[in-house]
Design brief:
heterodimer, A: 164 residues, 5 strands, B: 291 residues, alpha+beta, binds flavin-adenine dinucleotide, binds FE2/S2 (inorganic) cluster
Chain lengths: 164, 291
């Protein structure tokens, strides 16, 4: 064992093998090694949610996860949401644009990744359920009302898309 | 805000994990167990903890089972809080533990944080230690010599300190099934939904023939570790369950709190007030369930 480890993982559908320092966080790995800057680093101790990504389908704090812990994992970051063939934004991303859910946008990827997990589990959440799910994300601009609107709009659009 | 360097080990069996911890300890190496990392990572980043090595339990098979065994629910230490939250068994048979789990952090934290990690970390504001005292839970710990069972009232020692010896791994927590006819409730005040509590209470209540026959009450977020509130329990014994007896129990508990914590977010007096009020509310909630 040593302070360096080789990890293999999938990020946004692409496989990677890299040697990393054991103390490297997954957030820094994504940003600095894979150049995926959408995963933002705010507080670095689990409070703000700006670094939220999906690990094996579940939302997680990239700042509270070591890159070595992600060995073998399947990761989705905000960069993985845009449709690769058409280039179109994911309906959740588009809803955030349309309902003004992004103000300065620093917190947006975290909110979007949290919403992705929420709407995957619960396509028709109540306002209370949305608020509970978003409770782990902070927006410095306090644009919470439009963020709520964005999640509601995304839920409606995804539902009518799946009904069609 | 980056961790200092450390060696990383990921053993693939419990035997290997305990042997490794013993060997590292023998070599004079300060090794720490890594579970979900949801408390350890901030401590590493702030360098409050600066271990030489981390032993990650994620690849040890079998530590994440949730099952019914000899009349109690056994939850493997590495089961995620999210798994405990989604477990039908836990929700049906021990709803107090289920409700407590839903109050721990946010979903992103519960997805990765382990059940065992919270008990081992033993944050004074954590819901789990209080629930463990109320339910008289048992903690199972393993080292190279085998296994021992530690009752909850001996497990939580003081601020972030448990009865676990260095090198011991918490493998499982056991809790009784809630007896039929028992009421339960957990209430807390947080600054933000999901954050650690400024103060909280967990309790169970039994009613028979219109009287309180038994109550078990614990508070969290007020002292160096979760505390049983026996004076309030006594005050309820034989009492008619109503607003008056519940208010009296709350006031008794508040008065009995020796020296509540005080911090920038909540003074000792405020915490004392919260405990009294929360007990009153939680008793009403528990009584409504006790049928
Ligand atoms: C934003 C945020 C909000 C939170 N809110 C709450 C809350 O409301 N309530 C609450 O209770 N907690 C809360 N937490 C803490 C969270 O629940 C942690 O997950 C938990 O305290 C630790 O579990 P873990 O699996 O992540 O353990 P780790 O962080 O990996 O470990 C914590 C400590 O326990 C030791 N340890 C872990 N597993 C074992 C084991 N099996 N045997 C022996 N030692 C072990 C480690 O060595 C370390 O010292 C919050 C955390 C964050 C970041
Ligand atoms: S940067 Fe990860 S939660 Fe704030
Ligand atoms: S949009 Fe700026 S932090 Fe949320």
């Amino acid at each position: 064992m040593s302070t360096r480890q080789t990890i293999r993982l999938t990020v946004n559908g692409k496989s990677y093998e890299r040697e990393v320092e054991a103390r490297l966080t997954l957030a820094d790995f994504l940003r600095h090694e894979l150049h995926l800057g959408g995963t933002h680093v705010g507080c670095e101790h689990g409070i703000c949610g700006a670094c939220t990504i999906l690990i094996d389908g579940r939302s997680a704090r990239a700042c509270l996860t070591l890159a070595v812990q992600a060995d073998g994992a399947d990761i989705i970051t905000v960069e993985g949401l845009r449709n690769r063939e058409t280039g179109q934004l994911h309906p959740i991303q588009q809803a955030f644009v349309d309902a003004h859910g992004l103000q300065c946008g620093f917190c947006t990827p975290g909110f979007i990744m949290t919403t992705l997990e929420l709407l995957g589990e619960n396509p028709d959440p109540s306002d209370e359920e949305i608020k509970e799910a978003l409770g782990g994300n902070l927006c410095r601009c306090t644009g919470y009302q439009s963020i709520l609107d964005s999640v509601r709009l995304a839920a409606r659009r995804l539902q009518s898309a799946s009904a069609a | 805000m980056k961790p200092a360097p450390f060696d990383y080990h990921a053993p693939t069996s419990l035997a290997d994990a305990v042997a490794l911890l013993a060997r590292l300890d023998g070599d004079g190496c300060d090794a720490k167990i890594l579970a979900g990392g949801q408390s350890l990572m901030p401590m590493l980043a702030m360098r409050v903890a600066r271990p030489d090595a981390l032993v990650d339990l994620a690849r040890v098979p079998g530590l994440d089972a949730i099952r019914l065994q000899d009349g109690h629910i056994a939850i493997g230490a590495m089961a995620s809080k999210r798994a405990a939250e989604l477990s039908e068994l836990v929700r049906e048979k021990q709803p107090l533990f289920h409700a407590a789990t839903r109050l721990v952090g946010h979903q992103q934290i519960r997805n990765r944080g382990s059940v065992g990690g919270s008990f081992a970390h033993s944050d004074p504001a954590s819901e789990y230690p209080a629930v463990a005292l109320v339910l008289d839970m048992q903690m199972v710990a393993a080292d190279p010599d085998g296994e021992r069972v530690i009752p909850a009232d001996e497990f939580f020692v003081t601020y972030m300190t448990t009865a676990l010896e260095p090198g011991e791994i918490l493998t499982e927590v056991r809790m009784p099934v809630l007896p039929t006819g028992s009421g339960w409730a957990i209430q807390e005040i947080t600054r933000r939904n999901g954050d650690l509590a400024l103060a909280g209470v967990a309790l169970t209540l039994r009613l028979e023939a219109g009287r309180c026959t038994d109550a078990r009450i614990a508070a969290f977020g007020v002292d160096a570790t979760a505390v049983r509130l026996t004076a309030a329990e006594e005050a309820l014994r034989g009492a008619v369950p109503n607003g008056e007896s519940f208010a009296r129990a709350g006031a008794t508990a508040a008065a009995a709190l020796a020296d509540p914590m005080s911090c920038i977010h909540a003074s000792a007096d405020y915490r004392r007030h919260l405990v009294g009020t929360l007990i009153e509310r939680a008793l009403a909630e528990a009584a409504a369930r006790a049928h």
